[in-house]
Write a structure and sequence with these properties.
single chain, alpha+beta, six-stranded antiparallel β-sheet, 12 helices, 11 strands, disordered N terminus, disordered C terminus
């Protein structure tokens, strides 16, 4: 079988479609708490089962900050279309291709995005020598938007300074947001993988202080090898915000507003040509069924379907079969909906932290 025609192209771990999903009627946020019992697609429940409490807070914050309807609806239905794919080269290898909202505050989407970025950075880095650099700002009570403007402007000024231009040729920087230990102020900082020559940490600290006027805490480290460099990229590409943001709803709402239309990962110098979301070929996989279809077959005694479900769902396979038994099997004689046209992620094998 061929992939659904809606799956037009890949973006490393992602499969994308050019055709947008048709809008559906707006619904309440209650389905986020429902475990799939109040209209939320079962695949969405499965995808977000590892962070449901934080997800409810994000959904509420998106509403409170008057984000666009399309963004809220995409976040609410993230993962609602989920297909099981089989490798053409290895018939025993299966993956889930799932619709994603691509929202920076969606944990599963952030994890998928980080794998895409890490894979492309790894291919670009190869055997080049690179360093880890961390740039911080002194804690203040100023609004986050002002602090981010200040941080990005300071980094731009740093890249124009003779010390930096003389020693560094290019790299990639990731923003991370934290609250201070007392939870009263913001602590935004940049994690940078930079290629170039030796960078004296004391000279960098003095230069950073002269640019920011009040901040001198910097860090420079040399990774052991390229594997550690890629692990660094993966960590910060998938972690733009700290769990401390979820401690207070007002804090979370401020972060959502401050990050609107702001890049959280940026390349610089001779790395500007790096396409961190470059699209690979879609020829390696073929479509089998929806995740719910595989689970239904497994629930009805299909041993091959059960084996596939266990591979793609891990320890959540039995739980998901029970959801399907309660909600899909009683309606199995209803007409099957047409193949959707979502934007898709091709997922890696299941991990402990999220549904897939």
């Amino acid at each position: 079988m061929q992939l659904p025609t809606a799956l037009a192209y890949w973006e490393n771990d992602r499969i994308h479609s050019e055709a947008p999903t048709e809008p559906v009627a707006a619904t309440q946020l209650d389905p986020l708490e429902s475990g799939g019992t109040s209209g939320e697609p079962l695949a969405t429940t499965f995808r977000h089962s590892g962070w449901s409490a934080q997800r409810r807070k994000v959904a509420h914050a998106l509403t409170q900050t008057n984000q666009t309807w399309s963004r809220q609806e995409a976040f609410r239905t993230c993962g609602g279309n989920c297909f099981v794919l089989r490798s053409k080269s290895n018939p025993e290898d299966f993956r889930l291709a799932a619709s994603g909202c691509h929202d920076r505050f969606c944990l599963p989407c952030a994890q998928a995005r980080s794998r895409t970025i890490a894979a492309n950075v790894a291919a670009y880095l190869k055997d080049r020598r690179a360093r880890f650099v961390t740039l911080t700002l002194k804690h203040t009570n100023r609004p986050l938007r002002m602090e981010l403007d200040r941080l990005y402007a300071a980094f731009k000024a740093l890249r124009k300074a003779p010390l930096w231009k003389r020693t560094q040729t290019g790299g990639v920087a990731f923003l991370e947001l934290k609250r201070s230990r007392d939870r009263l102020s913001w602590h935004p900082h940049l994690h940078i993988l930079t290629q170039g020559k030796f960078l004296d940490v004391q000279k960098l600290a003095l230069l950073w202080k002269s640019i920011t006027k009040d901040s001198h805490i910097v860090d420079v480290r040399l990774p052991r090898d390229s594997a550690q460099a890629i692990a660094y990229v993966t960590k910060y590409a998938s972690k733009p915000f700290d769990p401390s943001l979820f401690d207070n709803q007002t804090t979370l709402e401020e972060a959502i507003e401050a990050l609107n239309h702001r890049r959280m990962a940026l390349t610089f110098g001779n790395w500007k040509g790096l396409q961190m979301t470059e699209k690979p070929s879609e020829d390696a996989w073929e479509f089998l069924d929806t995740l719910e279809g595989i689970a239904m077959r497994a629930q009805l005694g299909d041993s091959a379907a059960l084996k596939i479900l266990q591979k793609v769902a891990g320890d959540r396979a039995t739980w998901f079969m029970e959801l399907v038994a309660k909600q899909i099997v009683p309606r199995m004689n209803t007409a099957r909906p047409p193949t959707p046209t979502p934007q898709m992620y091709l997922e890696l094998p299941p991990t402990p932290c999220t549904g897939y």
